[in-house]
Write the structure tokens for this entry.
Amino acid sequence: MVIPSEGSAPAGSIPQSDGERVLVLNTGSSSVKLALCDSTGRRLWQEQRGWSGDEAAKGPAAGALTRLFDDWLPPLLAGDAALPALVVHRLVHGGERFTEPIPLDAQVMAALEDLVPLAPLHNGPALEAIRWLRQWAARQSLTLPQWACFDTGFHASLAPESYSYALPAAWRQQGLRRFGFHGLNHQHVGETVAAQAPGVRRLVSCHLGAGCSLCAIRIAPDGTPRSVDTTMGFTPLEGLVMATRSGSVDPGLLLHLLRSGVGIGELDATLHRQSGLLGLSGLSGDMRELRSASRSGHGGAQLALAVFRHRLRQGVAAMAASLGGVDGIALSGGIGEHDQALAQELQEELAWLGAVRWLVVPADEEGLMVRLCMNSRRTKA
């Protein structure tokens, strides 16, 4: 069963809307997704641009993201008619403090700066986008409220047995715990399934794209989804095999590499950018390329696909165990939505789970962020 997403207007111009409009910036490590939505989260316009995330590691002076915004955003924001009521940003890591949508002020920004080391490839660029918009609005003598939503927020409901690492108390008291990520889309998947497939109460949400994670979601009788377990942890590096991220690795192996002379910088770069499907295949982190190469007999591509699927099966089974069974499994994200071969493989290999409803839910972090912020703003008014 495919659950359709809301339609959106063609890119290139911002259409007129009778109600308030919200601009959503989803600033990632290699691309920026921009969407203009109405107050219900329905997309009126959307566009995506790539940028070199490697520049982020060189610091703000490198300026790749700033140059992108300088060229791209002013024409869209020019004039009172086009100015949105507010701008919403996706922040990957909110730590223990930030679990709900929040308006951005100087105090919040200072706290968010402290969280950048926990998700440098994502939080750093997002904060740069916030600063760019603040400076642009000041130059134009305009008021442009900015809000943030957090990918970790949905997982604030995790119980201690789900979020605790088996570490000494002194370390755990420093906030060293599992947070989970992709929460915005997992929440969207949970809400969508609750509305469209009301018989599903125990749901495994599979966010499969360049980044991959699973979430065990329990849906209450009133349709409210609640995260009870997930595969990512203190950072987005834990869990499943991803495009260029390793996923979970024995920490003893990492200690071995450090003792062997591998530097922290090299270790960080390798685990984030040279591992995962790319590292396994020696070819690509793109699932489509690996499918094609696998059919042509490329051994590395075949290994990458096999390891990816093996770890995914393990993860789904673990999430089902956390739920005490499973009624539905939802695939989302670029791979989850479009790789029909993977969907078929999973259904065959997980048939032992019994009667399970399989669904495909197109990702819509932007729409969810709009609804969360508009609801929060109305509550605070």
Residues 181-365 form a domain with the Nucleotidyltransferase; domain 5 fold (CATH 3.30.420.40). The chain has a mean pLDDT of 90. Residues 111 and 352 are 47 Å apart (CA to CA).
